């Protein structure tokens, strides 16, 4: 009885543990509308590339919901030429991949 009450207050945004970096990324990805994207910079040991997570414009018609792309930086921003690394319909694998690599969101 007491445990259920505590879970409900956390789920409703009540006082509880702060969200993990992965959970924050998942929330950001789920708020993307088709055609929007978020760019991340990886540490130098992974190369000079910028990682872009883009919401697919054609979803749910065809393809996956998100595309993870790499782009060479142009003036600190993602360049026009991009390579799709992989696609996914769920946000958790993308967030795990970025957190594991200590990616930082570009402003």
Short description:
The model is unreliable at 5-12 (pLDDT under 50). This protein is α+β, with helices and mostly antiparallel strands and 107 residues long.
Shape: globular
* Euclidean distance between termini CA atoms: 44 Å
If strands are numbered along the chain, what order do they take across the biggest sheet? 4-3-2-1-5
| String of helices and strands | HHEEEEHE
Strand content: 25-35%
Please state the CA-atom Rg, rounded to the nearest Å. 16 Å
Q: Which regions contain 5 or more consecutive residues with pLDDT less than 50?
A: 5-12
Number of distinct helices: 3
Averaging pLDDT over every residue, what do you get? 83
**Biggest sheet details:** 5 strands, antiparallel
Protein structure class: alpha+beta
Describe, in plain words, how this protein is organized in 3D.
The chain is 27% helix and 32% strand. With 107 residues, the protein is α+β, with helices and mostly antiparallel strands. The chain has one domain (19-105). The protein has a 5-stranded antiparallel beta sheet with strand order 4-3-2-1-5, with helices on one face. α2 crosses α3 (92-100). The longest helix has 10 residues, at 2-11.
Layout of SSEs?
Layout: H1 2-11, H2 21-30, E1 37-41, E2 50-55, E3 66-74, E4 77-88, H3 92-100, E5 104-105
Antiparallel strand pairs: 1-2, 1-5, 2-3, 3-4
What descriptors fit this protein?
alpha+beta, 5 strands, single chain, 107 residues, 27% helix, five-stranded antiparallel beta sheet
């Amino acid at each position: 009885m007491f445990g259920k009450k505590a879970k409900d207050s956390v789920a409703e945004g009540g006082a509880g543990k702060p969200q993990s970096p992965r959970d924050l990324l998942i929330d950001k990805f789920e708020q993307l509308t088709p055609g929007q994207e978020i760019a991340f910079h990886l540490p130098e040991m992974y190369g000079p590339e910028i990682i872009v997570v883009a919401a697919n414009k054609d979803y749910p018609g065809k393809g996956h919901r998100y595309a993870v792309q790499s782009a060479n930086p142009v003036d600190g921003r993602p360049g026009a030429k991009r390579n799709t690394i992989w696609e996914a319909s769920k946000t958790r694998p993308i967030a795990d991949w970025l957190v594991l690599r200590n990616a930082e969101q570009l402003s």
